[in-house]
Amino acid sequence: MxxxxxxxxxxxxxxxxxxxxxxxxxxxxxxxxxxMGQRANFEESYTGxxxxxxxxxxxxxxxKTRVGWWKNGYPEYFAKVPNAxxxxxxxxxxxxxxxxxxxxxxxxxxxxxxxxxxxxxxKVEFLTxxxxxxxxxxxxxxxxxxxxxxxxxxKVKSFNYSGGLALVSSLDFDVKNSNANYDEKFWDEDQQxxxxxxxxxxxxxxKTDFLCTANMNxxxxxxxxxxxxxxxxxxxxxxxxxxxxxxxxxxxEWVYHKYVNISSSxxxxxxxxxxxxxxxxxxxxxxxxxxxxxxxxxAWSKIWDTADIVIKDDVTAQQGIRFNIFQxxxxxxxxxxxxxxxxxxxxxxxxxxxxxxxxxxYCLPFYLSTTDESVARNLLIYRHNQLDRAIENAEKLGFxxxxxxxxxxxxxxxxxxxxWEITFEEIHRNGAIAxxxxxxxxxxxxxxxxxxxxxxxxxxxxxxxxxRVNFSEAKQQYVILGVTGPNEYxxxxxxxxxxxxxxxxxxxxxxxxxxxxxGNHNEVYGxxxxxxxFSNSELEKWSDIRSKxxxxxxxxxxxxxxxDGFLDKDILPVTDxxxxxxxxxxxxxxxxxxxxxxxxxADVLQGIYFFVDKFDPKDIRRNYEFYExxxxxxxxxxxxxxxILATKLGMNDKAYEMYLRTSRLDLDDYNNDTEDGCHITxxxxxxxxxxxxxxxxxxxxxxxxxxPRLPQQWAEVSFKTNFRGQLIELIMRKDNNEVKNHSxxxxxVILNKIEIIVEPVAVTI
Length: 765
Ligand code: BGC
Known about the structure:
This protein has 765 residues and is α+β, with helices and mostly antiparallel strands. It has a domain at 33-306: Beta-galactosidase, Chain A, domain 5, CATH 2.70.98.40. The strands form 8 sheets. A 9-stranded antiparallel sheet has the order 1-9-10-11-12-19-16-15-14. β14 (187-194) and β15 form a beta hairpin. α18 (638-648) packs parallel to α20 (680-694). The chain starts with 10 loop residues before the first strand and ends in a 7-residue tail after the last strand. The structure holds beta-D-glucopyranose. Residues 343, 351, 356-358, 486, 488, 600-601, 635, 637, 681 line the site of beta-D-glucopyranose (BGC).
């Protein structure tokens, strides 16, 4: 755990130079706008510890699969989000001496991420090895108002140095991924220009042919001394630069503004790409830094209006939750249904920017509440658009008749993960995709979605389960063999309770959905049935499987069994582990992990969390008390589920402890891995822990319901939620709770099991 960042309600601040934590800070101070993003690398040269990272949403490279032993069925590639154009480069030359903070004597250092305004600022004052006393002040952002624009304000000041100064401002596509399987580069140059006419470089991803371009424009103002300066243009492979030289005097300052347009053939035709990008980078320069920044701040302010959670008088918690909300919106804004939420967003290479079940299981409710419902719908549409690929994926594995297995990891609908125990066996992900449709409809009431899109996906998923089960003569029940549950510390197990339960539920929900469409959209029903070639005998089959599904249990303990044989293990609580053994995924051999009883993340409890209303509180408690002590929470997705269930069970201290673990996971580098990037998808879990946990928000019979349980450590917490066109605010206090209606119509809300009618608060139009 680290504790080097200053606590502040709206800002993340590093007020001293920590070379040893630079890569962690680069992740934490990342900026993005849903379309592109970048790590908080320094603009100037830096030979210290750094991971260069610029990413463009939806652009990927199919890195050839590398495994020790090839298994039939493995995908050919593992999708990587390529490190894209490094557009921030501004080298500083003082005569021949190049500024490099790693070799300088740092006098003052200040880095700030202003989350309210989405602005990254850095101020540093230092002595170069030649004793030149200089300061740099930079501000930059990826515009939320125009998601193809990034801008930098870069000030260089001299305290004692008089002489030549040059800024070398560049666009560099000649970059690599640190996680490339074969150390190869992912980009080929397409075209470039570096002249007084235009400065740009365009490159194409190898194999996938995404054409991406970076165009820049700039201005320079020299304060003090001679104000003349000269431009020289240079280039290299996939690289362009402009060399701006002049002189600086003590107390003199150069103020440089760089405006960059980053766009890709995902959003423009190849023919218009360059012309549009050039025009937009010129327009950005004409608009100017201040005005662009204003538009950007206004866009953020609209997001914060509905997405913020205010925690009074606890700056540590406040900073934590805002950081999570901020990073989620930097990663995904919902404007584009072809994009999704990579577990590291735009903050690192790991997990390849690809889509996991994390989106459906964790992120969807966040977007459902904090913005327009079209955003969550876009997340569902993403999977709907990939249905054909999911059917192909299942066919490759021997399934037929329109059965779909959604990939564990994907960029374009194809599976691109290659660990057999996950690719082939972690099939529970199919359940989360169906659950997301249910969750969305329950919240929005948009049942029409079933007829327009949902049913096809649900039937294809149900068909998969119906083929994946087999009837055990010995048990006279249906079983599901050879799976990995959410707890990835068990592989190839039989009858993972969570998987069997959700499989059965998927068949039930698909059947109900078809019945709903038949009853309410009869004209569409016929079309769907013939399109997917559906026969009623499938309904009978699903019903038979559901009624005879084997769900392992231990009657004497009154718990569901994570899988067959779980109780044969040595059942020892995590508290018995010595500190030298944890995290077990770094300290123990894989076989030892598999043999142990230790659980990576919620598994049985994940199922109980999803379907909490279907279980008796006593069952929930028994399962929680049995499984939580065996859980090492080595997935960032784990503590939030436990926090929510603990709140439900009135285990307030546990709930708060689990909440803290999720909310500052990256800020405090809890798992020692923030340098790879931030845990974006689990940030939605932090939000869930407050909204579905402490506030107990749910939907009951089409009404919003709250059962607030404010942790005693907090005095007041408030948040807003969009619900069916109305904006509702809950304020939880120690001794009372208040619901405000920021809309125009009264709304019925259930507060602590009592229905109340909330009149609109005065709204100014
Ligand atoms: C978790 C998975 C998750 C993945 C990406 C893994 O460590 O076990 O459940 O989908 O990370 O976040």
